[in-house]
């Protein structure tokens, strides 16, 4: 992973000292809240429903055990003993006191972490495939590209006051695990005729106007990435709407101007910018790539894994669900579920963070990843260590065997924390997970993505859930709309609204009826929910959701 140098450390120290002075001025009244707001947002500090919230960047989801330990220490010292992992591979602290935030930032800086550009109308934390560097199906590790983009975008003088926030995601595989088609810029590494390059997608995004991104360049040579991305953001910075924040994202800019017009303007700007880079960016990239070399993989027997797999049904269930094929056949990628049935999706206690850090150091080459699905990944684990890891995880309530299943729900904080939310998300996720655990149907249902948002801003990615749930306020009453058929992968799609919404106490029974219709209508146990929906269409699912309509018609 990338190692901070003296420049990086000095830069962070200077930024943190600057913000400490700003916080002191806010506390003593020299700055009003209106004056302080843009300053705190530049440093990832929000004012939420009940308290401040600090959002910490975990660039492209990668961190080591020491960094995870510091995240745990911060949770204990300045928060309430836990942190919340988000869909942008960040961690949020929901209860810091304003006076303590500078100390939190200094603690992060000591281990090469920060909260810069995790808010505001600027380029946010660059995300990537959480299996990067380990996945059997990838062309190349996307994290060096993501790190190059992070360095380019951090405090970029032209892009600190964009029309709206701007998000980039990078994947190194044709199988998209980074949701690149729902980002302002999505980037996929590929090779063509032996040359390394990128597919560039632009104009994706969710929120109140969900759109799937369009291909701007089907192949961009590797050397052209930074000037081409700078051209895209420059064009957006000029054309993007500033008169209406709901129409300010680049997806609207692309929609209103057309992809061909945007492509022409980007190419024109790119031609001017490319000579200015003069190869410096490629020298930087080579230095970055050297820091992302694979660990020295262990060799040895995997008999302990095979013995446990055949003798322990609990371990076997976890292995079947939470392990993914690694590029080295003696290794596995371990997904640690932060979604125990009935727990808050994405919340990890300080004790759990410390145990994950210790496991990473002892068994997993000191590497961890945060996924956009709010789980934690050990990317490189020799199979001989898997029984011991499972036992350690089980001891701290982290061995739930539900990755990709109905209880592995993405959920935003909703009205429990967020000042923008119009309905609760967390209790709905908890109740769905608990109900299907009670029914013992989770593994029979198979792969299913439920995503829940507590308002139209769609932080829970509900538009691209196989089943999406959107909580809204209807005359002071929570109302939950259901969308079906969304997809966040390489076959990305925005879900279709099923019909009228459901009251808070009706939403779980509605999901139960929906799943019942799927189990009844699927061809066999291998047909996933999303595949059954694509084959059958909305009708049988809508009939299950609204049986009273069918009865009235009769």
What does this structure look like?
It is a single chain. The chain is of the alpha+beta class and 554 residues long. Helices cover 39% and strands 17% of the residues. It has helices spanning 6-27, 33-41, 65-78, 101-109, 143-153, 225-239, 250-257, 259-277, 280-290, 303-311, 313-322, 350-363, 386-395, 426-439, 442-445, 507-521, 529-536, 539-545, 547-553, and strands spanning 45-47, 52-56, 62-63, 82-85, 91-93, 127-128, 168-171, 185-192, 195-202, 214-221, 323-325, 331-336, 347-349, 368-370, 376-382, 410-411, 450-453, 467-474, 477-484, 496-497, 502-503. The strands form four sheets. Strands 16, 17, 18, 19, 20 and 21 form a six-stranded mixed sheet that branches. A five-stranded antiparallel sheet has the order 1-2-5-4-13.
Characterize this entry briefly.
With 554 residues, the chain is an alpha+beta fold. The chain has helices spanning 6-27, 33-41, 65-78, 101-109, 143-153, 225-239, 250-257, 259-277, 280-290, 303-311, 313-322, 350-363, 386-395, 426-439, 442-445, 507-521, 529-536, 539-545, 547-553; strands at residues 45-47, 52-56, 62-63, 82-85, 91-93, 127-128, 168-171, 185-192, 195-202, 214-221, 323-325, 331-336, 347-349, 368-370, 376-382, 410-411, 450-453, 467-474, 477-484, 496-497, 502-503.
User: Helicity level, as a percent range?
Assistant: 25-40%
pLDDT < 50 runs, ≥5 residues: none
First-residue to last-residue Cα separation? 63 Å
Beta strand %: 15-25%
Shape verdict:
globular
Question: Which structural class matches the secondary elements?
Answer: alpha+beta
Number of helices: 19
């Amino acid at each position: 992973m990338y190692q901070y140098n003296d420049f990086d450390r000095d830069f962070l120290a200077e930024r943190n000292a600057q913000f400490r002075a700003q916080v002191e001025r806010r506390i003593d009244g020299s700055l009003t809240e209106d004056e302080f707001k843009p300053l705190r947002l530049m440093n990832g500090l929000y004012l939420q429903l009940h308290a401040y919230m600090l959002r910490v960047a975990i660039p492209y989801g990668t961190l080591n055990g020491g960094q995870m330990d510091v995240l745990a220490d911060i949770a204990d010292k300045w928060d309430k003993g836990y942190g919340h992992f988000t869909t942008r591979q960040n961690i949020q602290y929901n209860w810091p006191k304003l006076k303590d935030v500078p100390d939190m930032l200094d603690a992060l800086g000591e281990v090469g972490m920060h909260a810069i550009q995790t808010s505001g109308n600027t380029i946010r934390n660059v995300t990537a495939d959480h299996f990067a560097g380990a996945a059997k199906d990838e062309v190349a590790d996307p994290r060096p590209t993501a790190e190059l983009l992070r360095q380019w975008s951090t405090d970029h003088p032209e892009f600190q006051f964009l029309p709206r926030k701007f998000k980039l995601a990078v994947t190194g595989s044709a199988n998209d695990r980074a949701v690149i088609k729902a980002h302002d810029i999505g980037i996929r590494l590929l090779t063509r005729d032996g040359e390394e390059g990128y597919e560039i997608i632009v104009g994706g995004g969710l929120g109140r106007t969900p759109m799937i991104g369009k291909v701007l360049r089907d192949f961009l040579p590797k050397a052209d990435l930074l000037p081409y991305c700078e051209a895209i953001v420059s064009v957006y910075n000029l054309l993007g709407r500033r008169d209406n924040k709901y129409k300010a994202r680049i997806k609207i800019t692309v929609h209103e101007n057309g992809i061909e017009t945007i492509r022409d303007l980007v190419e024109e700007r790119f031609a001017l910018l490319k000579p200015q880079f003069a190869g410096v960016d490629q020298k930087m990239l080579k230095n970055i790539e050297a820091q992302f070399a694979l660990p020295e993989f262990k060799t040895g027997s995997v008999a302990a894994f095979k013995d446990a797999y055949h003798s322990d049904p609990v371990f076997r269930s976890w292995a079947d669900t939470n392990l993914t094929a690694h590029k080295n056949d003696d290794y596995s990628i371990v997904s640690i579920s932060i979604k125990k049935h009935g727990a808050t999706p994405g919340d990890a206690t300080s004790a759990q963070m410390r145990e994950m850090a210790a496991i990473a150091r002892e068994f997993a080459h000191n590497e961890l990843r945060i996924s956009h699905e709010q789980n934690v990944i050990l990317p490189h684990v020799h199979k001989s260590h898997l029984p011991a890891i499972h036992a350690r995880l089980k001891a701290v309530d982290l061995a739930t065997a539900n990755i990709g299943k109905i209880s592995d729900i993405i959920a935003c904080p909703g009205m429990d924390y967020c000042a923008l939310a119009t309905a609760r998300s967390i209790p709905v996720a908890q109740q769905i997970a608990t109900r299907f655990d009670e029914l013992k149907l989770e593994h029979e249902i198979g792969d299913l993505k439920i995503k829940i948002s507590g308002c139209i801003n769609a932080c829970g990615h509900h538009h691209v859930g196989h089943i999406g749930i959107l909580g809204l306020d209807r005359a002071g009453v929570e109302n939950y709309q259901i969308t079906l058929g969304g997809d966040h992968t390489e076959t990305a799609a925005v879900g279709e609204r099923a019909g009228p919404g459901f009251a808070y106490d009706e939403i779980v029974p509605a999901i139960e009826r929906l799943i019942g219709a799927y189990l009844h209508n699927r061809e066999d146990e291998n047909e996933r929910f999303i595949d059954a929906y694509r084959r059958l269409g909305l009708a049988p699912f809508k009939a299950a959701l609204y049986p009273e309509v069918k009865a009235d018609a009769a």
